[in-house]
Amino acid sequence: MTSKKLPEWVPPAGLQLHLTGVHFDAIRVRGVRGEAVLHHLATLTDGDPGPVVREVAGGRWTYFLIPPGVSKRYDWPPGATCLGPSARDLYVGIPAAHGNTYPLSWRCGAPEEGEFVDAELLHGVVVAQLVRKDW
Fold first, then answer.
1. With 90 as the cut, is the pLDDT of residue 86 above it?
2. Tell me: the pLDDT tens digits for 44-82?
3. What is the DSSP letter of 95?
4. Confidence of residue 132 (pLDDT cuts 50, 70, 90)
5. Is residue 118 part of a domain?
6. Which domain range does residue 44 map to?
7. How far is CA 57 from the centre of its chain?
8. CA nearest neighbour of 50 among 120, 124, 118, 125
9. Nearest-angstrom CA–CA distance, 44 and 38
10. How far apart are CA 39 and CA 24, in angstroms?
């Protein structure tokens, strides 16, 4: 059995805040909309969308982690918050691969080194989901 090589920014235990734009950018979508985006993204990627962090308390945010610096290439619609390189510091909580990480968890498992959500595919799904009139 081979084990994954986790990125150095995934903590060994608990949770850790990481500055966006350094190891990754993040696209944040709230509640049921985030789950809908994830569902469609997972369907398009045979269940392996890349690293996605889910918050199960508060705003129930879903964070899609994409390569650092890539978020600024896209015009993200209202409802999707871009957390990437910017003038102010923005942090995302990153859970450990295993153990108690409440209220955060990896939605589809912790990432392997160099693994990210496909930003172009994510953008297409986000635009399709968040521009729908029935939300």
1. no
2. 999 999 999 999 998 899 999 999 999 999 999 999 999
3. E
4. low
5. yes
6. 20-130
7. 16
8. 118
9. 10
10. 21
